[in-house]
Amino acid sequence: MKTFISTLLVLLANLPGYGQQTAEDSLQYGWKNAVVGNVTLTQASFDNWQQGGESTLAWQAKFNSSFTLEREQFTLANTIKFNLGFAKVGGEEARKASDEIFLESVYTRKIGRLLNPFVAATAKTQFVAGFEYDGDVKTQVSRFLDPGYFTQSLGVGYKPDAYFQTRLGVTVKETITSDFPAPYADDPNTPEIEKTKVEPGLSSVTNYERTLRDDIIYTSKLDIFSDLEAFKRIDVLWENNLNIKVTKIINISFDFDLFYDRDISSRRQIKQVLGIGLIYTFL
Prior knowledge:
mainly beta; Outer membrane phospholipase (ompla), Chain C; 1 helix; 14 strands; disordered N terminus
């Protein structure tokens, strides 16, 4: 992990004109839409990943889209991400390797050049059931909207240039479950079984996107949430993607995700996926 971070920092530090482009330099009013889908043959490696998955060769389908409305008074940024992949080893049945549905909408009111108030809402769940495997024993641990995560935030955003933006705000985080309240929503210290968990707190979301060359794009997102009860209860999700466009339709993608939520596991979770496959840009 340290080698991965150090390599990225060296690449960014040696880019010509790094940090010189402001957010206003490339600002254009109106809608800016992007829809990209790709299917890849992947090599996946998992370390303590709770939602199911196994290190193997697998297929993965990804669909990323953004719809941003830029006006003089405000910005409305919408993001939709779909991700689903399965792995098959020998004669065993296909097993899920990746699964995500993520929706985000951020409204920013422009009152200053760098600092501006925002309101945001997110929703996150998965497409299909997730299982844990212990030899021949197969135990279901999750499914669509079980769990489901929702957040609403209000705060201040900071965007010094076109590559980097961060926001900090008060946040309400809801976790909903149905058949699988533990470990997602249930409090083990109470006799009742809670299927819904509501956590008020503070959150910070930082996005970075950099075109290293015309055919190499690096994106990173760091999402931190604290319920203000204890330092060890801070939830962290750090997502990184390095995308290399080999030809017009062939690309190489490397994903590295680090996740920590003490309510789900006392250890950090790591997922990394290397994929080579086809990509298609719709917009």
